[in-house]
């Protein structure tokens, strides 16, 4: 950037992988100077890398180190603990920056739409994942617990874990595999994770012996990646059980397997399991294909999942055959995908659960909005692996830079305007120094009981760890 050239101020809403990859794409381009503010409602960055990736998947979680480096770059700043929609409206934010990029993900769950879905013991995978990853929304502070009554999501999950022998996981995507692994692994096998102390204490009481995974279509139509699927067969003291008849391919399934390499590799893994006799291991994972849940029943809490056998009709739709069965279970985890929600004031298509856009340019009231862009799950839906967000962010940032060149986006504001707006509201964002203090506190807590780190799950713990005692002490000095 030449001296005196005013940087474009871009605010990114969401400090998960999609938002941070957008910050990376902005900071890597050299066409125009930019000043990037990455805002998140949570006190800590990293989104689903911290609160979604399974804690036993160390290499995927280590992507955090790369994301952290981006947030440390000059020209990029993290604004944690700032909620757009309550601390600031979207219009207030747009009033002090040159462009915004929505990267706030898809935070809620899809519903099954069957009877018994809301019984105690039926839980959405996003909530269960948030519980074992130590998300502060699911681990509320004590004062908030008192206000809401004793049955928090975390306490419900803890009770369920301690009383479940048989669990049903609905859906055959990677999240279902994560959930199944966490349910079936012994607590010792999970010790080498950073799960919060409360969560580990609950998992230590785990009584699960059987996990049933339901696929409403056949084995050729799973959404698993093969590495993650294969991992289930490598768990000590766990048998993976599949009825070989479920793996027989009909014409359409055969066509899928012939065209899709991942489907073919997954079939090979599952055929290997089906061919191996069970070893008599104390815990089991059962796959049930061509099986959809039609109801969940129980007296006040889940006791059984009722299922129907399915087939695919000539138009490719799943149809029930009328052949029913039931699986006794005390826990049902509905792992049928995430869903986007609307951020107040932001354009949203309720039918798709996404922000309407073209190549990342947001469409507001039927026209391109001059200063709004979108990336990640809230742009394309909850699909793909973490790396998918990188190319997605590049597309969005390419659109933004092109619009800057065309003069559609102008450098009018400075980052100080955002800081002044926040300070005027008595909002004090947590930056990367605060994150480093939280990071150090989590490592110290973990090492104090022989673990690599321990997640601080409660917001109050995060805020206490984020406090800068040195500068507080300096400020208090006369
Ligand atoms: P997903 O991959 O979209 O899988 C959702 C599953 O739910 C599908 O099997 C789908 O079956 C099934 N389903 C949907 N509605 C259903 C219904 N009403 N009844 C029964 N089954 C239903 O979603 P996800 O597992 O939540 O994963 C989200 C994204 O995160 C994916 O892109 C995933 O790869 C990624 N992820 C990756 C990793 C990793 O790489 N290790 C880990 C976790 C998540 P149909 O196909 O029949 O619709």
Architecture overview:
The protein has 19 helices and 18 strands. The chain has helices at residues 17-28, 47-51, 58-61, 63-72, 90-94, 125-132, 142-148, 153-163, 174-184, 197-203, 226-232, 251-259, 261-275, 377-380, 388-406, 415-424, 432-448, 459-466, 469-476; strands spanning 8-13, 34-40, 76-80, 99-102, 108-109, 122-124, 166-170, 210-214, 238-242, 283-288, 291-297, 304-312, 318-328, 331-334, 338-339, 357-358, 361-364, 367-374. The strands form 4 sheets. The protein has a 7-stranded mixed sheet with strand order 3-2-1-4-18-17-16. A 6-stranded parallel sheet has the order 6-14-7-8-10-9. Helix 1 (17-28) crosses helix 15 (388-406), helix 6 crosses helix 9 and helix 12 packs across helix 13 (261-275). The longest helix is centred in the last third of the chain and has 19 residues, at 388-406. The model has no long low-confidence stretch (mean pLDDT 94). Bound molecules: NADP nicotinamide-adenine-dinucleotide phosphate. The site of NADP nicotinamide-adenine-dinucleotide phosphate has 25 residues, from helix 9.
Name of the CATH superfamily of the largest domain: FAD/NAD(P)-binding domain
Write the CATH fold name of the largest domain.
FAD/NAD(P)-binding domain
Number of E-type strands: 18
Strand content: 15-25%
- The helix count comes to 19
Strand order of the largest sheet: 3-2-1-4-18-17-16
CATH class membership of the largest domain = Alpha Beta
Distance between the termini: 42 Å
Q: pLDDT under 50 segments (min length 5)? A: none
Main sheet: strands, sense, barrel: 7 strands, mixed
Structural class comes to alpha/beta
Bound ligand species = NADP nicotinamide-adenine-dinucleotide phosphate
Q: What's the structural domain tally?
A: 2
What's the CATH architecture name of the largest domain? 3-Layer(bba) Sandwich
Mean pLDDT: 94
Name the overall outline: globular
The residue fraction in helices comes out at: 25-40%
C-alpha Rg (nearest Å): 24 Å
